[in-house]
Amino acid sequence: MTTRSEALRELRRTLQEAGFETAALDARVLLLTALGIPATDLITRPDVPLSPEEAGTLSGLARRRLAHEPVARIVGTREFWGLPFRLSPETLVPRPDTETVVETALALLPDRQAPLRLVDFGTGSGIILVALLHELPNARGLGIDLSFGALVTARANAAENGVGGRCHFALSRWADAVSGPFDLIVSNPPYIASGVIPTLDAEVRDHDPRLALDGGPDGLDPYRVLLGEAGRLLASGGLLVVEIGYDQADDLVSLARTCGLEILRIAHDLSGHPRCVAM
Ligand code: GLN
């Protein structure tokens, strides 16, 4: 019989040998997930043997990790803005960079107590919308996605984070089924150029949904739509805040000019890349 600490060591070694830089952390999280125990149990009771079922579950999770499935996807949840979010195959794994969008919107809103009307295009698991509603107690929001599965996940995340009563979700290609006015439009649209997708890390390329990544031939198609529709959708004095790829700031500046939108801020992520544009 293999004990918990032996299983942990063995999995860590397997992942290390396969070249995973986060082998130690990954092994711990996968073992805790397979056993369904809190981290403290691993420390206080390391010598408990794994049952055959637990060993089977763990080797299943290990196989998925060895195929470069991100740990967050295997566990099925990920934290964003300090809140727990569940994932589904139809949603991106939340990136910490996307917190830049939430921060920027909050920084530019004149009054957080106002009864703001928000919309999040391509809401995915709902992270941006839910984080904003969490910070804006009198706001109401609409989450839009082209994926029904994503909307189901977003709705569950809104409910579990206590903002379900202040938001709705709707299936639409961008703003096709949406009319304003909105005080705040946010979006982390797909912005990878189609031709670049085959070169992405396996964790992204093989496990994030293509619909959430592919921004068309130059990666800018969704921005053409969103910035083009902003005039119709924004209330006067309203704000549009979008996440961008690390090298897209100049393109966004010229697109904003074409659409008659004023750039209010270009915010950088923790790696120092321009990551979000507010207009
Ligand atoms: N930031 C994501 C990545 O590079 C892309 C997400 C998106 O296209 N919105 O993996």
Automatic annotation (TrEMBL):
InterPro entries per the UniProt record, alphabetical: DNA_methylase_N6_adenine_CS, HemK-like, N5-glutamine_MTase, PrmC_N, RF_methyltr_PrmC, SAM-dependent_MTases_sf, Small_mtfrase_dom
Q: What does the record list as GO biological process?
A: methylation
CDD domains to which the protein is assigned, alphabetical: AdoMet_MTases (cd02440)
Judging by the UniProt lineage, the source's domain of life is Bacteria
**EC top class named in words:** transferase
Q: Can the keyword Methyltransferase be found in this entry's annotation?
A: yes
Q: Where does S-adenosyl-L-methionine bind?
A: 122-126, 145, 174, 188
Positions of the Methyltransferase small domain: 116-193
User: Residues that bind substrate, according to the entry?
Assistant: 188-191
What are the EC numbers?
2.1.1.297
Q: Which GO terms describe its molecular function?
A: peptide chain release factor N(5)-glutamine methyltransferase activity
The keyword Transit peptide belongs to this UniProt entry's keyword annotation = no
Recorded catalytic reaction(s): these are: L-glutaminyl-[peptide chain release factor] + S-adenosyl-L-methionine = N(5)-methyl-L-glutaminyl-[peptide chain release factor] + S-adenosyl-L-homocysteine + H(+)
Please report the stretch or stretches of sequence annotated as the Release factor glutamine methyltransferase N-terminal domain: 6-76
- Keywords noted in UniProt: Methyltransferase, S-adenosyl-L-methionine, Transferase
Q: Which PANTHER family match?
A: HEMK METHYLTRANSFERASE, MTRF1L RELEASE FACTOR GLUTAMINE METHYLTRANSFERASE
| Function, as annotated | Methylates the class 1 translation termination release factors RF1/PrfA and RF2/PrfB on the glutamine residue of the universally conserved GGQ motif.
The family classification in the record reads: Belongs to the protein N5-glutamine methyltransferase family. PrmC subfamily.
For this entry, the protein name equals Release factor glutamine methyltransferase
Organism annotation: Microvirga terrae
